[in-house]
Design a protein that fits this description.
The protein is built from 11 helices and no strands. It is mostly helical.
Length: 273
């Protein structure tokens, strides 16, 4: 359990939780940190030393492979469905880490920034728990299938630049989930098994919450650009090129992206206009 957040800086505690390796412990500590937040102390100016142990804390499994080496299996088999659920669970576990990292790493932001990302971490932990519960009904657990580390790799690339972090993690990599989720749900409906249909229900929850998470990224990216006198779209192009962000491909979930705060100009940019 985390220490008393009434006396400990909640941002420092986010670093402690980020370093936890056991997924159950990390989720429980994340929820406890969020529950204590209304009375918690948040020192927006404090800076912290990264621990000697590697970040983020994570279990020995799953093994992490390059994205093109992660086996692809059909969800129309029991093992393939488990692999798909595992892949989504791995994304949600990484999303907990990404949100916690934003809280401790970037000093000097408004207090609302830290509260926003702690809420995101709390909701991502809820998503992970739902998926892990479903995975166990399929006689699997988190760690049983290979995964990749693309989300955290971009986190490392942007660790010294909060503007780049907001541009390229929530509103680029995580926003890809807004586009992918309806396609995954359509495939799961074709599978039609009780487990597959439960996965569709969980993805409804995730999509609803992820619109809010991407909106938070959009909000803070826009705020940072305004503070620094940057044109959001022009600077995004610079950041995407500098950090080798993936070029996003259609189809796009226009309704979800607009709800998450993408402008018409940004949508046109995605479509290559």
């Amino acid at each position: 359990m985390p220490p008393d957040t009434h006396s400990v800086n909640a941002r420092q505690q986010a670093l402690v939780v980020l370093a936890l390796r056991d997924p159950s412990d990390k989720c429980a500590a994340t929820h406890a940190l969020w529950a204590a937040l209304p009375q918690a102390h948040i020192d927006t100016q404090a800076t912290f030393t990264e621990p000697a142990t590697a970040l983020p804390g994570r279990p020995d499994a799953p093994p992490l492979l390059p994205p093109d080496q992660v086996p692809q299996r059909s969800p129309f088999t029991d093992s393939g469905l488990a692999a798909l659920v595992h892949a989504i669970a791995h994304i949600e576990f990484n999303a907990i880490n990404l949100a916690l990292d934003a809280v401790w790493r970037f000093a000097g932001m408004p207090e609302a920034f830290y509260r926003d990302w702690l809420r995101v971490a709390h909701e991502e932990a809820q998503h992970f728990a739902l998926l892990r519960e479903l995975l166990r009904t399929l006689n699997h657990d988190y760690g049983d299938c290979a995964a990749h580390d693309g989300l955290w790799a971009m986190c490392v690339k942007t660790q010294h630049d909060v503007v780049a972090r907001m541009a390229l993690v929530p509103r680029t990599l995580e926003a890809r989930g807004l586009d992918a989720t309806p396609l995954i749900q359509a495939k799961l409906r074709k599978v039609g098994s009780p487990a597959a249909l439960r996965a569709v229900e969980i993805l409804d929850i995730i999509l609803r919450d992820e619109i809010g998470h991407v909106a938070i990224g959009n909000q803070w990216y826009g705020w940072l650009c305004q503070q620094h006198g940057l044109d959001p779209l022009a600077h995004y192009r610079v950041l995407a090129r500098t950090h080798s962000a993936p070029r996003l491909r259609p189809p796009f979930n226009d309704a979800a992206r607009l709800a998450a705060g993408f402008s018409a100009a940004e949508m046109a940019y995605l479509l290559g206009a």
